[in-house]
Amino acid sequence: MQNESTVYEVGFHMNPSLPDGEVLGKVADLKQAISERGGTFISEGVPVPYELAYTIIKRIGNENKRFSQSVFDWVKFEMDPASIVDLKKMLEGDTDIIRFLIIKTVREDTMISTRPEFKMSAEEGEEEGATRQSSPRKVEREELTKEEEEQIDKEIDDLVSDEEETSKE
Amino acid sequence: MNKDYFKQNKIKHIDYKDTELLKKFLNPYGRIYGSKKTGLSGKNQRTLAQAVKRARYMALIPYIAK
Questions:
Q1: Whose CB has fewer CB within 10 Å in chain B, the N or C terminal residue?
Q2: A115·B62 Cβ contact <8 A
Q3: pLDDT of residue B1
């Protein structure tokens, strides 16, 4: 069996306290580490300051450090699957990288430039039961004619009068 | 009949970094809508779920909102 290389993408959050020059240096170090392990660089993103959705806790030394901001970047590359474990270990040991994710991906650009409008299905309510209950009620109201309403009123009056008579006795 | 958003727009790969796209398929609490509501095929619904889980792990979108 041939040893084929796979396309990977590593996304990572860097420590926001790093100066701009060091951020770019970190990305350059990562790219160098990839090429040292026989990887071929495909594409990369731009380091962007990012407001995290929740606080990430990272153990650095003997201290739990909390991060609510970071600098996010990603690199796409092609590498032999056997070497990716080594790269993962290297990233785990880097204290300036708060969190990272290595995924298998495709060579093409996966980010879409234009996002067409998305319409959620209006037929399916959040609770199906609610829609089912509401529809028969409407039908009942529509079916009632004036004659039927008068008949029901009469029946109710008769019942009330019967009850009054029994209470008098 | 609701149609598959990704098939209609010829989107083959759902990127976890594209949070604006992913948020279209999340309710205000950050939970993924079911396939009945999204109208996605089973395969794309699973791909979407994987992308959302990756984005959550990377703190790009919250696990629980509100």
A1: N
A2: no
A3: 46
